[in-house]
Amino acid sequence: MYDITGYHEATNLQDVFEITKQDPNARIIAGGTDVLVKSRERKEDFVNTQLIGVTRIEEMQGVYLDEEETLVIGALNSFTQIEKNPIVQKCAPLLSYACSTVGGPQTRNAGTIGGNVCNGATSADSAPTLFCHNAILEIHSLDGVKNVSIHDFYKGAGWVDLNPGEILVKIKIKKEDYAGYLGGYTKFAQRKALDIANLSCATIIKHDADVIEDVRICFGVAGPTPIRMRQAEEYAKGKEITDEVLKEIGEKCLLDAKTRNSWRASKEYRDFLITILPARNIVEALKGE
C-alpha cells in the first residue's frame, strides 16, 4: 500500500516553493516510475508523504539551443521524448540512444530524465552520457537559481546535492562539450530489455585523422556513483588510435573504477568489462562516422 497523505498539482515553480516551504518533506513527482515504487515499498523518507505533481510546469519542458548553442533539456522530458527529439539526435545522439535503453516502452514514456538524474542511482542509463558531456544542472529554489556540475551533484549511492525546496528545472550541455564528438554506449544487463544495468559505459571521442584529441569515459555501476575514468582519458590524449592504445585505455580505466560484488554481477566480471567496453564503444563510434 502507498503511504501518501496528500497530493498537490503545481502549475508553476512558485507553487512548488510555497508547498515545500510548508512541508520540506513533500516529494516532487513527475512520471512516478521511481517515487511510486519507493512509496509502495515504504522506503525511508517515502512514508507519510505529500506529493507535488510538476508535469504542468512550463519552465521544465522543451528542448532547444540557446543563443550560445548550449543544448537545453527540460527536466520533464520523458526518455521517449529525448530519444526522438531531432535537436538531441543532432547534438547529443549518444544521449538519445542511452535513453532508448531504459526499461520498457511504458517506463520510457512516463519516466523523465530529471527524475532519472535526481534518483541518484549509479545504474541510471542517462547519467554516464551526461557525465561525458559535462552536463550542468539548473536548480531553482526560493533563494534563486544555481548551476551545478553533474560531477558535483552525485554525492553517493542514491544521494544527490538537492536540498528540500530545490527543484531541477533544466539540464544543459555547452557546445564545446558536444560539438565534434562521436560516441558509443553499452549497457550490460541480465536481459536485453526491461532490466537494470550490471555495468554501463558511455564513451565519447574527438579525433583528428588517427589521433585522439579528447576522449571521455564514464561507467555506471562501477562505483556508488557514475565515475569518469580520468587517468585513462589523460593517457589517451594525443595518442594514435591503435589496437594497443585502445587496450591500454581499458586497462587504465581500472585505476579509477570502484567495482564490487553484488547479486547482479561479480567484481571480476565487472572489471573484465571495464577493460574492453571503452575500446568497443570507440570502434563502433568511428565505424558510424
Keywords:
12 helices, globular, 289 residues, 4-stranded antiparallel sheet, single chain, 5-stranded antiparallel sheet, 14 strands, alpha+beta
Q: What spatial order of strands do you see in the largest sheet? A: 4-5-10-6-7
Please report the total strand number as a whole number.
Answer: 14
Distance from N terminus to C terminus (CA atoms, Å) equals: 51 Å
Strand fraction: 25-35%
What is the helix/strand order? EHEHEEEHHHHHHEEHEEEEEEEHHH
Largest sheet: 5 strands, antiparallel
* Rg for CA atoms: 19 Å
Uncertain segments of ≥5 residues (pLDDT<50)?
Answer: none
User: Which overall shape is indicated by the principal axes computed on the Cα atoms?
Assistant: globular
The overall pLDDT average reads 93
The helix-and-strand class reads alpha+beta
The number of distinct helices, counting runs of at least 4 residues, comes to 12
Amount of helix: 25-40%
Nutshell version of this structure?
With 289 residues, the chain is an alpha+beta fold. It has helices at 13-22, 35-40, 79-84, 86-91, 93-100, 105-110, 113-118, 127-132, 150-153, 230-236, 243-253, 267-287, and strands at 4-9, 27-29, 49-53, 63-65, 71-74, 136-141, 144-149, 154-156, 159-160, 167-173, 182-188, 199-208, 211-220, 227-228.
